[in-house]
Amino acid sequence: MIFSEQDVFGAGETVISSWSAGTGPTGILVLSDFGAPAVCWRDFSESLAADFRIVGFHYRGTYGSSRPLNESQTSVDDHVADAMAVLDHHRMSAPIVVGWSTGAPVAFRLAATYPDRVRALLAVAGVPRASDSAGRLVELLSGTLISGAAKVARLMPNPLRSLINKAPVDSATANFLQRSGLLSAEVDKELLTQVIAGYLEQDPNWYLRLVAGEARSKSSDSGPLSCPVRILAGRSDILIPAPLALQAAQRIPDATLEMVPGSHFLPLERPTVVADTLREIAS
Question: Count of alpha carbons within 13 Å of 27, Cβ hemisphere only?
Fold first, then answer.
């Protein structure tokens, strides 16, 4: 599937690169992981294109989206403002919002701040930022893995970082990641190589700034939400482990948690499960 791309004027004079697919009557807003390319949602979008219109966007400073003039503006609220601009541009009144990984806190904040603009919320391998100390501790431990990797990349000498970015990404690279246990062996290798290449294109310094901006944001716990909430969690996810997903589901009244086989990369590993869950929500 080829995604249609459009530039949107976001908040704070940013230009946000949005992508869309499908022609169906029901809207879906995808809030992806910070560094994820749109191709992560290829199989998901292909299975839903006949009945849904899927829209997503790249966060500030990634892919075709510009960095804000004030580079400290990378909070969850800043991303929510960009999401609202994308919704208005694509004339989506109240879509089902899907938040994956670091996109989940953005999705929860969007639903809490603009309840009339979110029909339902599906969190995929992601949770809202916690307000209680226990939840914050688990978040800190899992978040250390992400921010730590970004910091290692930031400390690399520029020539070494450039060499890594230019390194060929092929099936051997995909095989290595799958054997490492970071994600399952069921992911299509051609798709995975495209995803890896997309992540490697990103500036690790800017990615670290995005991660830090999300970490500094206040809790996105909001008590009762006016929309239905579903959480899909991977049983072998090391970034959002099962205890964190369970705590999030317990904090959100009437939220439904489903544990499925897979890792943190459920849109790649289980696109049919994610799509079928969304169909259930829509019905």
Answer: 16
Give the model confidence (pLDDT) of 202-246 as tens digits.
Answer: 898 898 889 888 887 765 554 568 899 999 999 999 889 999 999
Which whole number is the average pLDDT over 91-103?
96
Domain that holds residue 210: 4-282
128: domain CATH number?
A: 3.40.50.1820
pLDDT of the residue at 225: 87
Of 145, 100, 141, 139, the residue nearest 251 (C-alpha)? 139
CA within 13 Å, CB half, 264: 23
Contact 49, 74 (CB under 8 A): no
pTM for this entry:
0.85
42/195 Cα distance (integer angstroms): 11
Backbone angles phi, psi at 29, to 5 degrees: -105, 120
- Phi and psi at residue 44, to the nearest 5°: -55, -50
Residues 26-36 have a mean pLDDT of: 96
Contact 208, 236 (CB under 8 A): no
Domain count, the chain: 1
Who wins on pLDDT, 104 or 147? 104
Instruction: Give the pair of three-digit tokens for residue 18.
Output: 């949005």
Whole-angstrom distance, CA of residue 106 vs CA of residue 9 = 18
Which of 137-146, 167-176, 194-203 has maximum average pLDDT? 194-203
* Tokens 């849904």 belong to residue: 52
In the block, tokens 């990984």 appear at: 101
Number of neighbours of residue 216 by Cβ within 10 angstroms: 11
In the numeric block, the tokens 């970034």 are attached to 239
DSSP strand pairing (229-234 vs 256-260): parallel
Q: At what angle do helices 242-251 and 133-155 cross, to 10 degrees?
A: 130
